[in-house]
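Hey, resending since the last one bounced:
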Amino acid sequence: MLSVAEALARITGAFVPLPAETVSLAEALGRTLAENVVARVTQPPAAVSAMDGYAVRAADLTTVPARLRVVGEAPAGGAHDGAVSAGEAVRIFTGGPLPAGADAIVIQEDTERDGDTVVVKETVAAGSYVRPAGLDFRAGDVGITAGRLLGARDIGLAAAMNHPWLRVRRRPRVAILATGDEVVLPGDPIGPNQIVSSNGFSLSAFVEACGGQPLHLGIAGDDQAALADMVSGARGTDLLVSSGGVSVGDHDLVGRVLGEQGMELDFWKIAMRPGKPLLFGRVGGTPVLGLPGNPVSALVCATLFLRPALAAMLGRPESNGAQETAVLGTDLGANDRRQDYLRARLSIDSAGRRCATPFPRQDSSMLATLAHADCLIVRPPLAASAKAGEAVDIVPLSGGILGI
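The structure tokens again:
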């Protein structure tokens, strides 16, 4: 059996970033940037006021109160055409351009207006309440780097940099196929030996949350002809993801059917728990990732392998599945030869540390436990017993777009 690290390396190594496409700024949220966003303008384009008040020469305010003659106004979107000379001031508003000759702003709370004269009650230093040209960015600056998942802040910055269109990676098209006579779709009649299928829906949601376009093919029963027919629906996609049918039972037909269609098998077992039966190969140029049928195992394997595969296609830097750390909230016994992923809750302990406490029962059939988990505690093969308070690696689940 392969190690998790080797399996991850083989899977991510099989993908390259997809071609770029151009989308409008309004359609760019949640997309992955394919090219750097470079500022087309300087912001602000000139020195402007950061407050409502008066543009002055700091040298005129060495002693206060000081009386200055108001010679004009500089509103946002307008300007004072003349220069500020000794003993003069210009009424200015937030965003208004600093007039020539002025080097500071006196906020209006520190003044008292008397007709064409303003009485300044506080001294100011040169540069006070002035936003210099290019304070935010200058033309030619790189604002957002390629590979970034675009959020609302990025959209705002791209707009400010004068980009109505952005180059983003094409969304990976992922065909999703659930298998098994024992599963039915939600809402359909449930036979005496059947359960409701969740994998197709959870995996479709997972793909979409990761930036892909899911194509839910439905459920294929334990029939080779029917399975082969549904697999054909994956033609033209960037990845086929199946759930179930990749173990060694008489009814585990996915590997057999794909083999008859010329699949080049890379591997089909990993030394991990949950999720030992995991298949990876290629059929007719389409990569195939065969996940276990158990809903918990399928989602854990999707987190560890499908997400990095999608990241690799999108050119994102997180394609190696980086982990984080926490301290254990309880003692753990020694681990066996398989890398273990324990569902756990996160909290903050009395020392202010992030603390991961595994659920007392880790049965892989318990989907509700996974839904309530904040992270997976990673237990390497043959890990020694560990005490509460010891550091441990975790894979975060909550708090992100995946929300699995």
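The two ends are 27 Å apart (CA to CA).

Sorry for the duplicate.
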